[in-house]
Amino acid sequence: MGGSSIDDDWELTSPSGGPRTLVLVGCTGNGKSATGNSILQKKAFVSDANSAGVTRTCEMQRTVLKDGQILNVIDTPGLFDFSAETEFIGREIVKCINMAKDGIHAVLVVLSVRTRFSKEEAEAVNSLRTLFGNKITDYMIIVFTGGDELEFNEKTLEDYLGRDCPEPLKELLNQCENRRVLFNNRATDRRKKDEQVQELISLVNLVVAKSGGKPYTDELFVELKKGARMLHDQTEVSKQENEEKLIKRLTEMVELKVRETTARLEQQLAEEKAARLMAQKMAQTAQMKSSDEIHKLRESLERAERELRDQAGKAKCAIL
C-alpha cells in the first residue's frame, strides 16, 4: 500500500456488497487519523494532537465489521490546505484514487467542534467540488470530532450547530442533506465507540442506497482502470516503464486541475477583497455624507433658534 504502483486487481469489479471505501478529508489538525482509528477500532494510523499534521502520505487500512462488511479507510494528508506544492497534491490524489480502485463509497469531511468553521475550510470543500465535480457532494458525510469536549460541557451537537452556526457551515450541511455525525475519538467505553461507528455506517448505507450502489468515480478512475488492463499482460520491464508513464500522465492531469482550482480560488479571494474594499469605501462615503448632513442640520437648527430669539426680543420691545 505504500507505493504508487498500480495494483493488478484494478481490473476486477467489486461484487455487490463487496468492500466499501471511505476517504477521510479535511484540514490539518481536525483529527482525520484519529477518526480513521475510531472507525477501524484499532490504532492503525499515526495520530497526534499536532497542528502541523502527522499524515504525510495517503494510507489505506482495512477492517471487517461484525456483519462481515469489509471497510477500506483511506487517510489523507491535509491535501486541501493548499499549502503544499501542486506536484505533491497531484501525486497524492492519484495515489488515493489508485487505492480506492473501483470508486469511493463515501467522502468523510472531518471538522472539529473545538474550532469555528473557518473560511479556509469552506474554500477547501469548494476545492473538493472543483477537483472532482459537484457530484462528489452526494457522497459527502460531515464528521465532527471533539465529542468529548461537548460531553464535558454537557452540550449536544445540536446545541453546537444551533449556537451561532456560520452560514457557510449551514450551507454545507444543507448540501449534504444533513448527513452528519459526532465522534469522540477519546472514548474508552466500548458501547459508546460502537454506537458512533454504527451511526456513521448507517449514513454510509444511506449514501450507497441513494447512489444506487454505485461508488463515486470520475475520468481519473476510468484512466487508471484502462491503464491497469493494458499493463496486465505485459512483461515486468515494459510494465514498470508504462506504469511510470501512466502515473506521470495522470499526475499531470490532476496537477492541471489543482492549478486551475488554486487560480480560481485566488481570483475569488481577490474579487471578495475588492468587493470588501468597495463596501468600506461606500460606507465611509455614506458616513461622511451623513456627517455633513448632520452638520448642516445642526447649523439650520442653530440659525432657527437665533431667529426665534430675535423675534421674541422684537415682540417684547413692541409690547413695551
List descriptors.
alpha/beta, six-stranded mixed beta sheet, 320 residues, single chain
What do these coordinates show?
The chain is an alpha/beta fold and 320 residues long. Helices cover 56% and strands 11% of the residues. It is built from 9 helices and 6 strands. The termini are far apart. The model is unreliable at 8-16 (pLDDT under 50).
The whole-angstrom Rg is 29 Å
List low-pLDDT spans: 8-16
Biggest sheet details: 6 strands, mixed
Structural class of the secondary structure composition?
Answer: alpha/beta
Order of helices and strands: EHEEHEHEHHHEHHH
Strand arrangement within the widest β-sheet reads 2-3-1-4-5-6
Mean pLDDT: 83
| Number of DSSP E strands | 6
Distance between the termini: 110 Å
* Helix share, percent: 55-70%
Ordered list of secondary-structure elements with their pairings:
Blueprint: E1 20-25, H1 32-40, E2 59-64, E3 70-75, H2 86-100, E4 106-112, H3 119-132, E5 140-145, H4 147-152, H5 157-162, H6 167-175, E6 180-183, H7 190-210, H8 219-232, H9 236-319
Parallel strand pairs: 1-3, 1-4, 4-5, 5-6
Antiparallel strand pairs: 2-3
At a glance:
The chain is built from 9 helices and 6 strands.
